[in-house]
Amino acid sequence: MKTFHVKGQLRLSSIHVGESLRNLDKYLPSTQVVIVTDENIKKYYKKDFPDVPVITIGTGEGIKTLSTVEAILKELINYSCDRTSFIVGIGGGIVCDITGFAASIFLRGINFGFVSTSLLSQVDASVGGKNGVNLESYKNMVGVFNQPEFVICDIDLLNTLPKKEISNGLAEIVKHALISDESMFDFIENNKQKALDLDYDTIFKLVSDSVNIKSQVVQQDEKEAGERRKLNFGHTIGHAIEKIEKAGHGRAVSMGMVAAARFSQARHLINQEAVSRICMLLEDLNLPTTLDYPAKDIISAAGKDKKKQGSDLFYVFLEQIGKAKVEKIGFDELNRFIASVFN
Ligand SMILES: NC(=O)c1ccc[n+]([C@@H]2O[C@H](COP(=O)([O-])OP(=O)(O)OC[C@H]3O[C@@H](n4cnc5c(N)ncnc54)[C@H](O)[C@@H]3O)[C@@H](O)[C@H]2O)c1
Ligand SMILES: [Zn+2]
Questions:
Q1: How do 33-38 and 130-135 pair as beta strands?
Q2: What is the pLDDT of residues 63-72, one digit of tens each?
Q3: How many CB atoms lie within 10 A of CB 70?
Q4: Does ligand 1 have an atom closer than 6 angstroms to the CB of 125?
Q5: What is the DSSP code (8-state) at residue 325?
Q6: Which among 78, 51, 56, 77 is positioned nearest to 68, based on CA atoms?
Q7: Can you tell me whether residue 283 is helix, strand or coil?
Q8: What is the spatial distance between Cα 83 and Cα 111, in angstroms, rounded to a whole number?
Q9: 25: left (phi over 0), alpha (psi -120 to 50) or beta
C-alpha cells in the first residue's frame, strides 16, 4: 500500500492506494457512520461493508442531480444523523461526487470518506476535493471544493468493472502522463496489454503515479486558479463530445486529447510524430481517436462552457509528451480549430 496526502484548506486528505475495502473499519470514527453506494456495488460488495446503514442510489450520469442529493439528505435525517456523523461513499465517480456534496452541505458540512471502486474514480474523481452534481445539461454545475478525510483505492475491486470502464480510466491515466511525466507515458506504451488485463502490479503503479501527479497539482492549486487547469487537458472538446454522444467520460476525453494534440501541432508546439504516438497508444488501449462528428455540433456544445468561463477560455496545449502549457484563447479561435478538424 502507498499513501498520498492532499493538504486542503479545510483538512488533510489521505489517499491509500492498494488498501482493501475489507479494512474500511480501521479508518472510521467511533461516531455514527452511514454508507452511500450504488446498486451495482451493493450487488457485488455489500458482503464486505461494515455493519452500518446503507443508502443506495441508482446508476448513470442521469442520477447525478440535486434531487438525488435531496433524497440522501432526507435519509440522513431519518437515520438521525448529526454533526458528528460520518458518511462514506463506496462507488465510482458518480457516487463519490454526490456523496461528497451531500456530506458538505448536510448541517453545513460533516466529515466524509470514499472507497473508490472504478479505475476512473481511483485515478481522478476521488482525488482533489471537487464534489457536485449536474444541473439540466450543465455538467458539474453545482458543487463545492471539499477534501474527503480519506480515499481507499482498492485495486482488487476493479476485477468486476466492465471492460469499457477500464478503458475510460486508462484515458485519464494517459492524460496524467501526457501533461507531466514522459517516463510514465513510456511505461504505459511498454505495458499496455498488462494494463488492459488488470495485472495488479501494473495497475498499482499506474494508479499510484496518477494519484501522485494529481495530488501534487491539487496541493499547489486547490481551487483551480492556475496549475490545476492542466488537468483539463483534452476536456474542453471531450466535454463537448460527451454532450452530443453518451460515449463515456474517458472515451470522450480520449477524442478530446487527440483534438488537443492536433491543436498543439497546429500551433507548432509538438510534431506529427508525437501526435501519432499519442493516437497509437490510445487505440491500443481500446480508446477512440477519430473526430467523426459535425463541427457545428461540437462548436455549439463547447460554447455552452461559456456559461462557466466568459468569452475566453483556458485551453491546455502540449509542449511535448510529458509537458503541458495553459493559454487563454478566444472561443472564436477554438471554433476555427474545431471547424478545421471535425466534419
Ligand atoms: N470530482 C472530480 O474531480 C471528477 C473527476 C473526474 C470525473 N468525475 C465524475 O466521475 C463520474 C464518472 O465516474 P465513473 O467513471 O467512476 O462512473 P460511475 O460512477 O458511473 O461508474 C461506472 C459504472 O461502473 C460501475 N462500477 C463502479 N465500480 C465498479 C466495480 N468495482 N465493479 C463493478 N461495477 C462497478 C458503476 O455502478 C457504474 O455503472 C462523472 O460524473 C464525472 O463527472 C469527477
Ligand atoms: Zn476527466
A1: unpaired
A2: 999 999 999 9
A3: 11
A4: yes
A5: E
A6: 56
A7: helix
A8: 8
A9: alpha
Question: Rounded CA gap, 176 and 53, in Å?
Answer: 36
Q: Cα–Cα distances in Å, from 132 out to 37, 80, 127, 141, 338?
A: 16, 24, 14, 7, 29
- Which residue(s) pair with 7 in the sheet? 12
Q: Is the CB of 249 under 6 A from ligand 1?
A: yes
Answer CATH for 163-341 from 3.20.20.70, 3.80.30.20, 1.20.120.450, 1.20.1090.10: 1.20.1090.10
Looking at CATH, the fold of the domain delimited by 2-160 is given as Rossmann fold (3.40.50)
Strand partners, 313: 329
Distance, CA of 41 to CA of 55 (rounded, Å) = 12
The domain ranges of the chain are 2-160, 163-341
Any ligand 1 atom below 6 A from CB of 93:
yes
Q: Is the CB of 92 inside a 6 Å radius of any atom of ligand 1?
A: yes
Question: 308 pLDDT band (50/70/90 cuts)?
Answer: low
Q: Which residue has the cell 442529493?
A: 69
| Helices within 106-196 (DSSP H only) | 119-120, 163-180, 182-190, 192-196
Q: Which atom of ligand 1 is nearest to the CA of 127?
A: 3
Strand partners, 111: 86
pLDDT at 199 over 70: yes
What residues form DSSP beta bridges with 132? 143
Strand 111-116 with 86-91, pairing: parallel
Contact present, 118 and 124 (Cβ < 8 Å): no
